[in-house]
Specification:
The strands form three sheets. A five-stranded mixed sheet has the order 2-1-5-3-4. It is 30% helix and 32% strand. Helix 4 (131-149) packs antiparallel against helix 5 (179-196). The N and C termini lie far apart (45 Å). It folds into two domains: 2-75, Roll (Ubiquitin-like (UB roll)); 85-204, Alpha-Beta Complex (Aldehyde Oxidoreductase, domain 3), CATH 3.90.1170. It is built from five helices and twelve strands. It has 205 residues and is of the alpha+beta class.
Length: 205
């Protein structure tokens, strides 16, 4: 059986590949596939302890059995169509993000903007994303925030490409009946975004 392997960020630069197809025996596991990939690209093996694995846009363990046609993504540790979730190259319309969560039964609306910081030697950041999986995970964050904190609405917008110092790269907005829930949900969502959404940034001078 054949499966597709996709490489992102540093792994793509290391292998020189965006994706490749690998032939495996029926019943092979994700671990078996990794062994084949590391055999072809030995330098990649050193990153295994921190490497994230996904099969068909879901995080997976090495013991998962693969099927013909599966898409496997090898992801470095992450840095970030559905309503409230968007990934775009153009500038974030902050007013539109806030408007998207307004409701008459909301007593609080909280907005967080993550902006490119002027660290020494940094003039911009380049953002790369595994788009299908990122949108899926962002949508899951929105739904879980509603269950966990009782927020009424939440929107998450992340940018792609090169973003200069001082400009927003991500916006998280949420509305709730009370400000405490809105603040907590917004902070939690941003932490989750940094942990599980496959978005990477590269400093540019």
């Amino acid at each position: 059986m054949d499966v597709t392997v996709r490489f992102f960020a540093a792994y793509r630069e290391l292998t020189g590949l965006r994706e490749t197809r690998v032939a495996l025996a029926d019943g092979a596991t994700l671990g078996d596939l990794l062994a084949r990939v590391f055999e072809a690209h030995p330098k990649l093996a050193r990153y295994r302890p921190s490497m994230l694995l996904a099969v068909n846009q879901e995080f997976a363990d090495p013991g998962v059995r693969l099927k013909a046609g599966d898409e496997v993504a090898l992801l470095p540790p992450v840095s970030g169509g559905r309503a409230g979730v968007d990934i775009r190259r153009k500038a974030i319309d902050v007013e539109a993000v806030v408007d998207s969560v307004h409701r008459h039964d909301a007593g609080a609306v909280v907005l967080f903007l993550g902006t490119v910081r002027a660290d020494p030697g940094v003039k911009a950041l380049d953002y790369e994303v595994y788009r299908p999986m990122a949108l899926k995970k962002m949508g899951e964050i929105v739904e879980l925030a509603k269950q966990k904190f009782g927020v009424l609405e939440m929107s998450i917008v992340h940018r792609l490409g090169r973003i200069p110092v001082g400009r927003p790269s991500v916006a998280v907005a949420c509305s709730a009946a009370h400000r405490q829930e809105a603040f907590q949900a917004c902070a939690w969502a941003m932490e989750e975004l940094k942990q599980i959404v496959p978005v990477w940034k590269t400093e540019r001078g």
